[in-house]
Amino acid sequence: MLELLICSMLTILPDYLFRRYRQGRRIGHEITLYSVWFELRWGIVTCLMLTVTVITIIFYNHPTTSNVTAYFRTIPVVPEVNGRVAEVFVQFGDDVEAGDKIFRLDSTRQVAALDTARRKLDEVDASMAMARADALTADGQVQQARGAAEQASDELRTKLELRQRNADIVAQREIERLQKSSDSAEGTLAAAQAMRQSAETRLTTLIPAQKASAEAAVQQAQVDLDKTVIYAGVKGTLEQFVLQVGDLVTPFRPAGVLIPANEGPRSLQAGFGQIEAKIIKLGMYAEATCISHPLTVIPLFVSRVQDVIAAGQFRNSEVLVDANQSRGPGSILVFLQPLYPDGLDGVMPGSSCVANVYSNNHDAITAPDTSTLRKLYLHGVDALGVVHAAILRIQTLMLPVKLLVFAGH
């Protein structure tokens, strides 16, 4: 409507003033609906064409959208294991600090598993003590077998020396018996040494490995037990938390939602049409008005433009993607930061807003290689941004009336 009024002042109004005051024609006599259309048809058509042109230039070079939201983060309160609630430490709407207990699951099974793991560790410690005793026993057996082997070897060597001096002193059968006794003693010594090596291997390798496994089992059981108590990861407020003792909760069934503290809107996220992809650039100035903070125009600037359109994403599957299944052309996600540190104070997280982004062609206008006609066009484009800013302020004033009176909210 504002564009139509401006364009009519340049086309229809001058023609009417000329015919009314210059030619002396009177309303209701010479000036009727038919005569107005017949005589002002060129002005009316030109006005409509100029209005459409102005609207196109404004909305293309100064994009606007009502799809603006102050998104905020939420954290689902879920356990890592399945179980029934045994104890609840907080209530709906309570403020919690990082590390505070929220609720505890029934831990009977985890406590039993921890006790079993600890008993297994005690068994391994007992096996370690027995292995040390077996090692000492093996050492004694080795010493005993070594002494017997040395004695048998000395006795055989003595008999052989006597036989070399006088063959009739020692019988051949005695030599053979002593040789067998020496070989048997050497075998006993080798067996004792093998037993000692086995005991040392159990003491230094097998049992330490068993103890490490038992300690890991204890730690795992302790971790499983700790998982039955759910803590707050950050400072925040619990919402939709109506958990009661006996309720069944799973990792796929949240018990509530934790809203982090100081999670106010740091920026606004706006969705603009794809046709404005070449217009919206980093650093462009913007303005917005939000429902939760009425009668206020918030100065902003474009801090980031997402370089992909969410409507075109897909996941690999066994089904081919059909372009007809796309739900719409999608929009360009633009992040709008407040121009001043307290710019978004008073805007509630999740609030819906209306935003304008304004083009700035100053660099192109001041460039020496820009033609005069283009400079005039760019000046006009920047000047028309005032019209869009005025429209936003009219929307800001009419928003409470629209919602409270006409919408009946």
Largest sheet: 6 strands, antiparallel, barrel
Backbone shape: elongated
How many H/I helices? 7
What's the order of the H and E elements? HHHEEEEEHHEEEEEEEEEHH
Give the second-level CATH assignment, the architecture of the largest domain: Beta Barrel
The CATH topology of the largest domain: Elongation Factor Tu (Ef-tu), domain 3
What would you note in describing this structure?
The protein is of the alpha+beta class and 409 residues long. The chain folds into four domains: 1-61, no CATH class; 63-71 and 264-312 and 329-409, Elongation Factor Tu (Ef-tu), domain 3 (Beta Barrel), CATH 2.40.30.170; 75-106 and 229-260, RNA polymerase II/Efflux pump adaptor protein, barrel-sandwich hybrid domain (OB fold (Dihydrolipoamide Acetyltransferase, E2P), Beta Barrel), CATH 2.40.50; 108-226. Helices cover 49% and strands 19% of the residues. It has seven helices and 14 strands. The strands form three sheets. It has a six-stranded antiparallel β-barrel. A four-stranded antiparallel beta sheet has the order 2-9-7-4, with no helix packed on it. A hairpin with a 2-residue loop joins β11 (285-290) and β12. α3 crosses α7 and α4 runs antiparallel to α5 (172-226). The radius of gyration is 46 Å and the shape is elongated. The relative contact order is 0.14. The model has no long low-confidence stretch (mean pLDDT 79).
